[in-house]
Design brief:
Domain Photolyase/cryptochrome alpha/beta: 7-134
Mean pLDDT: 91
Cofactor: FAD; (6R)-5,10-methylene-5,6,7,8-tetrahydrofolate
Low-confidence stretches: 437-449
Strand content: 5-15%
Number of strands: 9
Number of domains: 3
Shape: globular
Family: Belongs to the DNA photolyase class-1 family.
Keywords: Chromophore, FAD, Flavoprotein
CATH superfamily of the largest domain: DNA Cyclobutane Dipyrimidine Photolyase, subunit A, domain 3
Order of helices and strands: EEHEHEHEHHHHHHHHHHHHEHHEEE
CATH topology of the largest domain: DNA Cyclobutane Dipyrimidine Photolyase, subunit A, domain 3
Helix content: 40-55%
Strand order of the largest sheet: 3-2-1-4-5
Structural class: alpha/beta
CATH architecture of the largest domain: Orthogonal Bundle
GO molecular function, one term: DNA binding
CATH class of the largest domain: Mainly Alpha
Radius of gyration: 23 Å
Distance between the termini: 62 Å
Number of helices: 17
Length: 450
């Protein structure tokens, strides 16, 4: 065990790739040396999906390079390693004679199981500290010991609660002597011109300042947030929030500063509600992580569905009978991004028109979205499927009406090559038995004419 004089501690980064407002990172007041580590774990196959999309991988690598630069600016460094957390961290702890390890909590069954395996593999204390949420666990437990099943009561309970200000950057102990930081692999692709945002803490700060204050785009957020594309139609802050390059409290602080300077509006209040939606999904996933992946959700509300490989392949490839859905899927794969409205349209088509298990779609989004967040992604898919937080029992979007509302002149569909050759309604299997795409079994879902 290391003595107090030479005490070395370790911080394991996960979905908190930032220096500013990172309470878990600065909770090393007794350390003389600090080892900062990021472990990139192999992706696991899940619902017919393997690997990580090029744009999501690119954004992560950029974020890690930015984090390493930020740490070096305060006298620290980042050790990047590939492997499994529960195998890599114990070896590093032994090599550098680490006395204590800190890690921030993140939602997800896999993420929480990884921490449990790590705990059992270590011979030194592991502290799991609060993550990237608006409210600390102690406050939330006091305000609502039982988390409401729907968003509205959650929102009403927290809308007027005080959100703590972000932490100021403090000093960090230097890295251990003899640390050789491995080079972070360079991205294999570039950002698509249609969504040319780079990963990292500095890029996040620039985007927040530009969108909120320079362009004052928050003033028309309520009216433009459903646009299918546009540099300033939405905040587009979710990619940095998802991997923790930006803290959600920093966004809230900027919003409150904006309201003090320019006044409150329906749009600014709606942005705060969106932050609370994120908070709602985060706490649902933290308190009951397993139900996030059940087909019927926490209430085990099962609906009829099927898996037809050809239909799923067409949806993934953007080769369905609906041009707008095709355009959205092409946009997703090529840019790593899709608007909130676009995600609802594409999800509704897979669930309601194709009659498929929603988790296949959620897994495909997980692969490609640069703002992939386990709580928000799976929580929103459950919402559309009617097995999550929607009190109306699901959302069934009228595809023709959605196209008329959000792509009236067909520009978006044309730009993203949504029109394709019609596909045969029936195919034959190896025994020449005709197979048809199953009729829609989502009769319980409410048709949404928004």
């Amino acid at each position: 065990m290391a003595t107090d004089i030479e005490r070395t501690e370790m911080f394991v980064f996960r979905r908190d790739l930032r220096v500013q407002d990172n309470a878990a990172l600065f909770a090393h007041e007794k350390a003389q040396r600090l080892l900062c580590v990021y472990v990139e774990e192999p992706s696991q196959p899940w619902f017919q999906v393997r690997g990580v999309g090029e744009q999501r991988s690119r954004f992560l690598r950029e974020s890690l390079c930015s984090l390493q630069a930020e740490l070096r600016s305060v006298g620290q460094d980042l050790l990047y390693v590939k492997g499994y957390v529960h195998q890599v961290i114990p070896r590093l702890a032994a090599r550098f004679n680490v006395a204590r390890i800190n890690i921030a909590s993140v939602p997800g069954v896999h993420e929480q199981a990884s921490v449990e395996r790590l705990t059992h593999s270590l011979s030194v204390p592991l502290n799991v500290l609060p993550g990237n949420q608006l409210f600390p666990p102690s406050s939330l437990d006091a305000w609502m010991p039982s988390l409401p099943p729907h968003f509205t009561p959650f929102c009403k309970a927290l809308m007027k609660r005080r959100i703590e200000s972000p932490l100021e950057v403090a000093s960090l102990p230097p890295p251990p002597v003899g640390l050789d930081a491995y080079k972070i692999p360079a991205p294999t692709t570039r950002a698509h011109p249609a969504f040319a945002f780079k990963g990292g803490e500095q890029a996040a700060r620039v985007r927040l300042e530009t969108w909120m204050f320079r362009e004052r785009s928050v003033d028309h957020y309520l009216e433009s947030r459903n646009d299918l594309e546009g540099l300033f139609s939405s905040s587009n802050l979710s990619p940095w929030l998802a991997n923790g390059s930006l803290s959600v409290r920093s966004v809230a602080k900027s919003l409150f500063e904006y309201e003090r300077e320019y006044g409150k509006s329906r749009s600014s209040e709606h942005l705060l509600k969106e932050l609370l939606w994120r908070e709602f999904f985060q706490w649902r996933a933290l308190r009951d992580p397993a139900s996030l992946f059940h087909r019927g959700g926490a209430r085990r509300r099962l609906t009829l569905c099927t898996f037809e490989p050809r239909s799923y392949a067409r949806w993934c490839a953007g080769s369905t009978d609906v041009p707008l859905v095709n355009a959205l899927m092409h946009q997703l794969v090529e840019t790593g991004w899709m608007s909130n409205r676009g995600r609802q349209i594409a999800a509704s088509y897979l669930i309601n028109e194709m009659g498929m298990d929603w988790r296949y779609g959620a897994a495909f989004f997980e692969k490609h979205l640069i703002d992939y967040d386990v709580a928000s992604n799976y929580g929103n898919w459950q919402y559309i499927a009617g097995v999550g937080a929607d009190p109306r029992g699901g959302r069934h979007f009228n595809q023709e009406k959605q196209a008329a509302l959000y792509d009236k002149d067909g520009t978006f569909t044309a730009r993203w090559r949504g029109h394709c050759q019609p596909q045969p309604e029936y195919v034959n299997d190896a025994a020449d038995w005709p197979m048809s795409i199953p009729e829609n079994h989502a009769a319980e879902s409410a048709v949404v004419d928004e």
